[in-house]
Structure formats: C-alpha cells, structure tokens
Design brief:
9-stranded mixed β-sheet; 6-stranded mixed β-sheet; 8 helices; 17 strands
C-alpha cells in the first residue's frame, strides 16, 4: 500500500500504454520460477503485506466527527480485507519460491482498546508477521524474524468507542532448517538453524521524514517514520549485507533524500549488497527520481536484464482488493544488488487471478518479487 494516497501527484497512463503495446507485440508475460534452488547462490523475496485499508478516511478528516467515522471506516476495511486469508496465499508463494531471506513491508500490528481510554491499546487483533509465520509453519516450512523495526505507531478513537492502534513495521525473516535431536535418551527436541547465518543486524529511521499537516484545526501534524532494516549474512559460505526498506511515497524530494540516506547509510559497506523493498519510485521514470538515484549510486536492478520486454508491474490493486482484473500500473517493488552476483531468475508473484483468496481478495495491493542471485567465482 502507498499509505498517503492524498498526496499522489503522478501521471501513470503513458508508460502503461507503452508497455502494454510492447508486451502484446512480444507475447510475453511475467516470468515464473523455472528452475530449482541454486546450489551456489541465494534466493530473496520482497513483499509489501498491505495494511488492509487506505488511510485516506483518517488523513482527510476535517473535524472530530469526520475523524471518528474515518477510523471506523479504516478498521472495517482492515477486517474486510481479511489478512489471515491473504496470508495463506502469500505463504503458498513463499513455500513455492523457497527464499532464503524475505523482506516484508507494511507488516502491520493492529491492536484495539475496548472501550477506549487514555492507556495505549494492547489487545492484538492482527499481527501480520505472526499470522504469516504460523501459515508457513503449517506447511512444514519454518521462518524466523531476523530483525524488525517499528515505524508509524498511531492510535485513534472510533465512532464505536473503541481505540484502534496501527503499528507499521519493516521486517526481515529467514528460513531455518529444523531437525530432531535426542536429549538424554528421553525423547526429542527441535533445534533450528538459519540457512542464512546471521552475522549481525541493524535498523534505523531516515532523518528526512514526511509531516502530514493536520486536517483538523488544533491537531498537531502527523510525523511518518520510515527507515530500513538490515542483516549481514553468510549464505553457502558467502557474506553479504541484506537490506529491506520502504521509502516515502511523495512529495518527491522527501523520498529522494531518503534514497540518498540509504546509499550513505546501510549501503555504504565493503560487503556485497542485496537491497530490496517497496521504493515507491516507478522504475519507468514516472513521478520521482529515487530509482535513478539508486542506480547512479551503484545498485543494479535484477529485473532489467532478465525481463527486458516484461514490465513486471507490482502495484495498484484497488484498496478493497476485490477488483476482478489486476490493476497494477507501476513497478515499485525492486530487488537491487551490488557486487559479485549474477541474476538467474526474477519473477513477480501474487499478480495472477489464480492467486486470489476464496473470497476473491488479492493477496496484497502489491505483488511480491522473487530473485535468484548466483554467486560469481570471485565472490569471497
């Protein structure tokens, strides 16, 4: 989800029509996995989970009653978009792709206080990360949280008298091997080991952040924290830094300054780099220049060489996720790398009509992107 829809300033039609023409002439579609997990490489995935609602009804409130009704509308939408059902589809996708590392954005934690009062809401209704990990566990595949960072944490009253609290998080999860170990001859216990050995983690917010001016007189502006999470890892004997981020939507200057902070921060490393996430910057040059800034900073887009005729669109489903035909319009979700990697596969997931839930919900308003990166021989 691009959370602050009220500030969209983009014109999207021209690049979409151009790519639709290219795809129609070439007769291609988004590539799907074509091979087994590489023996000498790493498979990574990025997935924006989507809060479950646009926040416009809250951000656009002009008085207290409007705010109370807006909170209720957002909360109703979150329940209607049914993340537990969507998580089943996302878990199926992860099981099929077998990524070693996954970067999650909008990994929401929704809590409620009923009735509302002055203390923070603590009753968890939806923990998107735990729901997804539980679905993976049910499929016999185990992932664990490597690093998590809280971003926007906002609690507001609803017209029903309840307080609704949203905590936005960026998260990295890693696949583990699990095996049985006999203990003192009295049974078995489980021991897990990451396929990606975690050498260290880090997380930070950007210094350049969006402040949303209040729509209600007398209310303070809303500061929107954004940032990144990272893990230095060793996969099949090779060390690299894995970074997951979610840049601001607009205005462009804030997003572009965040991209520069990314280059000067976690991406300023002697280690090879994999950087993925929801960059909110269209790869086809519409709106902001953050994508080009990251390329100029030395990052390589894993999609470009592998799918030159496939637009690989990843964002744009309707907020209720019930549109019968995919309405993706932009490529915002990218897997970049810098260093001795060779991209072998890159494909979009969650963009096909077969990917919807039984009730017709798309798994997110974003597609996921999977990339298989082989290690060059010179990779130490």
């Amino acid at each position: 989800m691009r959370t602050i829809h009220l500030y969209r300033l983009r014109v999207r039609l021209a690049p979409i029509l151009a790519f639709l023409l290219i795809v129609a002439l070439a007769g291609v579609s988004s590539a799907k996995p074509g091979g087994a997990h590489p023996n000498k490489g790493v498979t990574v995935m990025t997935q924006n989970l989507y809060f479950g609602s646009s926040l416009d009804p809250v951000l656009g409130a002009v008085d207290i009653l409007d705010l109370l009704l807006g909170v209720n509308e957002v909360w109703t939408n979150v329940q209607d978009t049914d993340f537990p059902a969507r998580a089943e589809v996302i878990a199926d996708t992860i099981v099929e792709a077998q990524p070693d590392l996954v970067g999650l954005q909008e990994a929401a934690l929704w809590r409620i206080q009923s009735p509302g009062n002055i203390t923070p809401a603590t009753d968890v209704v939806y923990d998107f990360v735990e729901i997804l990990l539980d679905e993976l566990e049910e499929r016999g595949v185990r992932y664990e949280v490597v690093v998590s960072q809280d971003n926007l944490d906002i609690e507001l009253p609803s017209i029903t008298g309840d307080d609704i609290r949203l905590t936005d998080r960026d998260v990295i999860i890693a696949r583990t091997h699990t095996w049985h170990v006999k203990k003192h001859g009295r049974g078995h216990w489980h021991k897990a080991k990451h396929r990606a050995k975690i050498l260290g983690t880090d997380a930070a917010h950007f210094n350049t952040l969006l402040q949303i001016p209040p729509g209600i007189p007398g209310f303070p502006p809303i500061l929107v924290p954004r940032g990144w999470v990272s893990a230095d890892v060793k996969v099949r004997g090779k060390k690299f830094r894995f970074v997951n981020t979610h840049l601001e939507d607009v205005p462009a200057i804030i997003q572009e300054l965040q991209a520069i902070e990314l280059l000067d921060g976690p991406l300023d490393s002697d280690l090879p780099l994999v950087c993925l996430g929801d960059f909110n910057s269209d790869a086809y040059g519409v709106g902001t220049d953050s994508y080009e800034i990251l390329l100029a900073g030395g990052l390589v887009d894993s999609w470009t060489d592998l799918q030159p005729l496939d637009p690989g669109l990843t964002w744009g489903q309707e907020p209720d996720l019930l549109n019968p035909i995919s309405t993706f319009t932009e490529r915002l979700d990218i897997v970049f790398y810098d260093g001795p990697f060779v991209p072998k596969e890159a494909y979009v997931v969650g963009d096909h009509p077969d990917d919807v839930t039984d009730s017709g919900l798309w798994p997110s308003d974003h597609a996921g992107v999977v990339a298989v990166l082989a290690f060059e021989k010179k990779f130490k």
